[in-house]
Amino acid sequence: MSSPPISIKGVLIYDGSVLLLLNDRGEWDLPGGRPDEGEDHRAALKREVREEAGLEVEVGAALEGHLFEVLPGRFVRIEAFACTLTGLRDVTLSHEHQDVRWVPLIELGETIAGHKLPAGYLGAIRQVIDQPRSPSAREV
To answer: Is residue 66 predicted with pLDDT exceeding 60?
Structure first.
């Protein structure tokens, strides 16, 4: 049996909110996607965030990965990374998604605005929220 395809996702938190994109299955998604053949995961994530949201990011720490059942019996291996916004926060929504939101962290849950946020993505966001920050990062 072959291993499932990999999808690289970014947890982008800015000013107390996380960036979420609404996909064609009606679920909230983290920005990201599949790396091109031979493409480094961090480079792929930077490219995908730029393509899907028009944002420039710095890719930081790798988070715990997980298997995600996209459709019944169809799995994808999610490899998520913490990201930092390096430019403007104005999002340009691509044709790949239906909606985009900067969701305040205090509003996070399994459902946001009537749409599901998959548990694995919620877990990745919580990993970033729970990461200890250096004193200089808190001052910024």
So the answer is: yes
Domain boundaries along the sequence of the chain:
6-131
pLDDT, one tens digit per residue, over 99-134 is 999 999 999 999 999 999 999 999 999 999 987 664
Burial class from Cβ neighbours inside 10 Å (0-12, 13-18, 19+) for residue 14 reads middle
Pairing of β 6-14 and β 17-22: antiparallel
Other beta carbons within 10 Å of 140: 7
The verdict on domain 6-131 having CATH code 1.10.540.10 is: no
Q: How confident is the model at residue 71 (pLDDT cuts 50, 70, 90)?
A: confident
